[in-house]
């Protein structure tokens, strides 16, 4: 077979068939991507809905938490035989004064003690399906939705919170509290949930009963989702199955309430409709590729065959390690000769790259050898510090012992910690050890205050971002002072970010000084701490790691001290 026909056949095999495969794969990949994108969209919507649901339910829980610890309720339940006076009823009513609470009832161990409205008797309460769950919760609130408590059938749906009330001092059971809440609290959460057209979001309990749904059409109905079965994955997920006789994408997410699961339903035809344009484009591309193959043969292949043969021969020489340029008989005036010229340049560049790689490999081996020679074993440092600490303790020098211990802990974070992200508590602890070491040098020259709330301790941050700022404040602000200085480090929560403030009462500086310090050439700086490199280093590392909106902000004025704010994102893991 002639080379021209081989090339034409190759074009058909390498272009036409791949285009068909590409079209098919693109169609199915796009359909799968749309399915995954939709599930992710719903997962975010479910996550946000669960967050709002938790917030809404916690508002009522806060009221009941406060109420059951009040003396008026504790005494009423402890001494039920005394009855409930008018004044007591007024006081109890104030405790449950909330627009979403429609009614409530207090039960002693043997009777319904008080309710402002008609309420179920104690015997009826004991027969409720959720009564055992309430008793097993040992005082924690139990939530029963409209689809679970049977109120949807009465035409007056309510959300119920039930809990055992315990003695404030002995923790013995002294009664029970049942609160009826308007279902509007669920309406507000689910109405704001994002859904595609004809989509729905359900709140289902672990028994498969629909507690609540956005459409309001299926509350109380029984379902049989497979993720509710024992042994099924309890984490978020999605799958395609029939729901109400219609093929649908079903996305689920366990709620913060372990008895509930959030479920999003999307008709699959809505997702598939997005892929039709990709299918049509694939068909058009197949036809165009076939026509292009024959046109390409007619107007280009015949001229290119001779050059291809020359390039193939040249490639055979390259395989043998011979980089000899192809000699062109005609001047380069079209694509055929440009191909030959390009091969010649490629051959020359490959030869040069091979030499460069060999040179780089030699340099790399030399650098690795130097790194091995210069490597310091951290365990040697720690063992040496332990020996110094032991000697200091034996000689009764507690100051040296404390300083060595602080230095050891400081080095463990600086040298031994391999990961870049560490808990904020560890970063602040690193600063504490640094300040303790500096206290030995400066003695009463300065004092410091570290403020970190428990809620922020375990958020992750980049390592060594606070200590350089503190060091800068110590040497630029505190050291030149005649009076005693003060450095305060505190962390605050702002939305999805954490702000760390480093404040000193030093002499401060103007913006001109700051700009001069910030714009210095790092390469010519002799001392790290004396030229403000720490500030810029921290700022650049934060910007590279987390993005342009993160970093440090400097506030200072002559005579009023300085405050440096470090902004980092909330990272859990």
UniProtKB/TrEMBL annotation:
Record's protein name: Sensor histidine kinase
Taxonomic lineage of the native organism: Bacteria, Bacillati, Bacillota, Bacilli, Bacillales
Cell compartment(s), UniProt: Cell membrane
Residue span(s) of domain Histidine kinase/HSP90-like ATPase: 461-572
Bilayer topology annotation: Multi-pass membrane protein
Keyword hit for Nucleus: no
Pfam families in alphabetical order: dCache_1, HATPase_c, His_kinase
Keyword terms of this UniProt record: Cell membrane, Coiled coil, Kinase, Membrane, Transferase, Transmembrane, Transmembrane helix
Coiled coil: 343-370
Organism: Paenibacillus lentus
GO cellular component, one term: plasma membrane
Lineage: superkingdom: Bacteria
Bilayer-spanning residue ranges: 7-30
């Amino acid at each position: 077979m002639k080379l021209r026909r081989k090339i034409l056949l190759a074009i058909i095999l390498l272009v036409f068939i791949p285009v068909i495969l590409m079209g098919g794969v693109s169609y199915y990949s796009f359909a799968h991507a749309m399915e995954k994108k939709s599930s992710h969209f719903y997962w975010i919507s479910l996550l946000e809905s669960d967050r709002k649901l938790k917030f809404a339910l916690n508002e009522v829980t806060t009221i009941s938490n406060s109420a059951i610890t009040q003396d008026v309720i504790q005494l009423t339940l402890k001494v039920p035989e005394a009855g409930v006076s008018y004044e007591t009823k007024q006081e109890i009513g104030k405790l449950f004064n909330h627009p979403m609470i429609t009614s409530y009832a207090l039960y002693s161990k043997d009777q319904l003690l008080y309710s402002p409205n008609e309420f179920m008797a104690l015997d009826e309460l004991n027969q409720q399906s959720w009564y055992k769950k309430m008793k097993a919760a040992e005082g924690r609130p139990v939530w029963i939705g409209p689809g679970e408590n049977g109120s949807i059938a009465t035409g007056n749906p309510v959300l119920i919170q039930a809990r055992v009330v315990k003695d404030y001092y002995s923790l013995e059971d002294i009664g029970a509290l049942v609160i009826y809440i308007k279902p509007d609290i669920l309406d507000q959460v689910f109405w704001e949930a994002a859904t595609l057209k004809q989509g729905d979001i359900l709140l289902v309990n672990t028994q498969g009963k629909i507690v609540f749904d956005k459409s309001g059409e299926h509350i109380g109905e029984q379902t049989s989702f497979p993720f509710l079965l024992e042994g099924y994955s309890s984490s978020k997920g999605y799958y395609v199955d029939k729901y109400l006789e219609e093929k649908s994408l079903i996305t689920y997410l366990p709620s913060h309430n372990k008895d509930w699961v959030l479920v999003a339903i999307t008709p699959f035809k809505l997702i598939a409709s997005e892929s039709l344009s990709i299918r049509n484009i694939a068909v058009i591309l197949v036809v165009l590729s076939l026509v292009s193959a024959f046109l390409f043969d007619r107007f280009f292949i015949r001229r290119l065959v001779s050059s291809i043969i020359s390039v193939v021969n040249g490639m055979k020489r390259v395989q043998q390690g011979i980089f000899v340029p192809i000699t062109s008989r005609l001047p380069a005036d079209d694509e055929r000769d440009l191909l030959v010229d390009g091969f010649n340049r490629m051959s020359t560049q490959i030869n040069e790259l091979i030499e460069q790689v060999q040179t780089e490999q030699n340099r790399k081996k030399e650098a690795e050898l130097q790194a091995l020679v210069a490597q310091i074993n951290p365990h040697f440092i720690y063992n040496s510090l332990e020996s110094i600490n032991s000697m200091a303790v034996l000689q009764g020098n507690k100051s040296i012992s404390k300083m060595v211990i602080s230095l050891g802990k400081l080095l463990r974070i600086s040298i031994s910690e391999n990961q870049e992200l560490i808990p904020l508590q560890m970063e602040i602890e690193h600063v504490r050890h640094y300040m303790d070491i500096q206290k030995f040098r400066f003695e009463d020259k300065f004092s410091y205050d570290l403020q970190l709330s428990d809620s922020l301790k375990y958020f992750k941050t980049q390592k060594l971002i606070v200590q350089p700022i503190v060091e800068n404040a110590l040497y630029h602000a505190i050291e030149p002072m005649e009076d005693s200085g003060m450095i305060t480090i505190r962390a605050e929560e702002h939305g999805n970010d954490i702000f760390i403030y480093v404040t000193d009462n030093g002499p401060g500086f103007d913006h001109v000084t700051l700009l001069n310090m910030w714009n210095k050439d790092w390469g010519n700086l002799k001392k790290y701490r004396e030229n403000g490199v720490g500030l810029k280093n921290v700022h650049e590392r934060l910007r590279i790691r987390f993005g342009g909106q993160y970093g440090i902000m400097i506030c200072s004025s002559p005579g009023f001290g300085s405050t440096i704010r470090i902004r980092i994102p909330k990272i859990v893991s």
